[in-house]
Amino acid sequence: MKCLSRLAALVRGKFRKRRQVLGFWPDLHSIYRYTSGHWLCNDQEHRDARSVAFDIVAFCRLAAEAVDAKAVTDMIKIGESLNRVFLVRFDTGVEAIARFPTSLAGPPHFTTASEVATIDFLRCQLGFSIPRVLAWSSRAKGTDVGAEFILMEKAPGLLLSDVLEDLPSYDRGMFAKTLGECERKLLDLRFTHYGSLYYKNDVPAPLRAPTLIEGLSPDNELNSKFCIGPIARRDFWEAEREHMDIDRGPWRAAEDYMKAVASREQKWIADFGTPHILDDPNRVLPGQGNRDDHTKWLSLYTDLIPALIPPLQEQKRPVLWHPDLHASNIFIRSSKKKGKISPAIPVTISSIIDWQGAWIGPAFLQLKVPPLYRTHDVPPRRLLPAPDDFDSLSGSEKETAKKIHQQRIRHKLFEVSAFPPAVLDMEAREERVYLEDLAQSTWKYGLIPFRMALYDIFRHWQEIVPGEDPPVLDSPAELEDLKLHLATWLQHQELLEVLDREFNLGEYGYVMGDRSKFEMVRAALWKKKLEYIEQGKDDEMRRKRSLWWPYRDTLRDEVVLER
Q1: How many degrees, rounded to 5, is the angle at CA 94 between CA 90 and CA 96?
Q2: HEC profile of 518-532
Q3: What is the CB neighbour count within 10 angstroms for residue 125?
Q4: Residue 337 phi/psi, 5° resolution?
Q5: Given 4, 73, 130, 142, which is the most exposed site by the fewest CB atoms within 10 A?
Q6: What is the pLDDT of residues 472-524, one digit of tens each?
Q7: Of 385, 377, 387, 374, residue with least CA distance to 415
Q8: In whole angstroms, how large is the CA radius of gyration of the chain?
Q9: Contact status, residue 229 vs residue 198, Cβ threshold 8 Å
Q10: Cut 0.85: pTM above it
């Protein structure tokens, strides 16, 4: 990017004149640009979207002042995805973490402002172990740094992801309970609206909810410092949505929030419907729908929303929840044994990081088992039956069954520890959550998964609306078409999964490593593509298969969807 090159030249000039705040020679290309790997889909656009330009001299001066140091002695890149993350070292021996949100992280200003306020709120109100923010700016032009950033304390302890495999099975299970109990503390906060949390001064008065917490006196200090404002979740701001006049809250009712999601997508699809680097590659398959199809099905979904919302206030009350609770966002206290957690010492949480995108939403949609413990086919409620016909299984089958059952136990331990009974015992909750997730992005993933999620809801309709028959949305002919399209979609989903495993690919064909490794993988996949195309029965099908190949530059596709 030209702006990055110009900035790098400017910084080199500043660096030579003002080296006193920099105790190292920065590798500006690595600091500004994405360097960890390449994508088989839209590579340049992916790397550009994860790059951030800023004035490193100005940042180091500001960071040094924030920790009472004279100079930054090193700035080591430790992460680069939605955020560029650096370990910052100072001449005093202090270490801190700097995060610069990329264009994929969320809306300018609101993303950073909400995260900082949320951290402060949770530290003060619940005593949550979250690293303290040392300095921050939510406006790129608000400081000489020229970019949004957060500088925070380095979290104490060990990353759970580094030691998880060392934990005995019992300790892993008990930590699910520990983590669930920690998250459950968030339920002590009884918010009045749905939206994101901010400092009051960061949100214009017309965009603030009139109240914050149930029963809180208007004179309470919290009311003068914090507020609930527009949702900072990425899907409300992605691509052209950022500049659209749409309802982003705050909302008083769960129904208003869910209808705002559907309405937002209908307007964006009708006015834009443009491709994006985060689109699923299988969204172009037959049956995934054109603009009119998407707006029609979102209208049908909107009509169902009142029935999908549970009746009890405890099931739908506004709840703040961590949005991305995986093992690399959790720090734990360790024993004196290097690299191990002693079974004799409880595994305790020393810090939970990355509250970016956290928002206050309906409890039945918000409360989710984190990826760390989430597994499939776990029955609702509190009972977890033993594996079927366990005694008749072979030795290897028993080991597999035990492993799966242990995973389900950990999943259930978190649920029971974190969720209130009214949510835990709710009928068809997973199906409702999945459908609402897909309603946020039908254009990104296509209509097939959305329509199948609707039919999952209809299979549970008597549990959701006792005594009523489910709506009839399709004719027999349309259902038959859906079955055929679903079969094609499942085949291509399987193809994608097989190739991802074979070539060790990440999302969107991501290849970690240098350019030479990327080119080797790309050459091998080119041969696979030719084989895939040749499987077409005629020229027209071979043409279509060339467009359906998953590892392609989707932003430069021919028009493969009927618009």
Answers
A1: 85
A2: HHHHHHHHHHHHHHH
A3: 14
A4: -75, 125
A5: 142
A6: 878 889 999 999 999 999 999 999 999 999 999 999 999 999 999 999 999 99
A7: 374
A8: 25
A9: yes
A10: yes
Q: Please count the CA atoms within 13 angstroms of the CA of 29 that sit on its side-chain side.
A: 2
Spatial separation of the C-alpha atoms in residues 149 and 216, rounded to whole Å:
32
- Give the pLDDT of residue 5: 56
CA–CA distance, 215 with 465 (Å, rounded to integer): 33
8-state DSSP, 36 = S
Beta bridge partners, 397, equal none
Task: Give pLDDT, residue 342.
Answer: 41
CA distance 20 to 71: 7
Joined together, the tokens standing for residue 475 give 């004719």
Mention every residue, 6+ apart, whose C-beta is less than 8 A from residue 295.
266, 269, 270
Nearest by Cα to 409 from 362, 369, 354: 369
DSSP for 492-521, please give it. HHHHHHHHHHHHT-BTTTEEES-HHHHHHH
Contacts (Cβ under 8 Å, ≥6 apart) of 462: 468
Closest to 448 (Cα-Cα) out of 308, 280, 302, 309: 280
CA distances for 117 relative to 62, 100, 114, 124, 544, angstroms = 20, 17, 5, 11, 49
Residue 341, pLDDT score: 42
Contact 446/283 with Cβ under 8 angstroms?
A: yes
Angle between helices 539-548 and 515-534 (to 10 degrees): 150
Taking alpha carbons only, the member of 309, 300, 563, 298 closest to residue 439 is: 298
pLDDT tens readout for residues 215-256: 988 788 898 999 999 999 999 999 999 999 999 999 999 999
Output the average pLDDT for the chain: 90
β-strand partners of 199: 226
Q: What's the angle, vertex CA 71, arms to CA 109 and CA 4, rounded to 5?
A: 45
Q: How far apart are CA 312 and CA 299, in angstroms?
A: 25
The answer to whether the CB of 176 falls within 8 A of the CB of 160 is: no
Inter-CA distances, 497 with 137, 339, 437, Å: 40, 33, 21
The length of the chain, given as a count of residues: 563
Instruction: Give the contacts of 219 (CB within 8 A, at least 6 positions apart).
Output: none
CB 533 within 8 Å of CB 543: no
- Nearest CA-CA partner of 320 in 144, 146, 121: 121
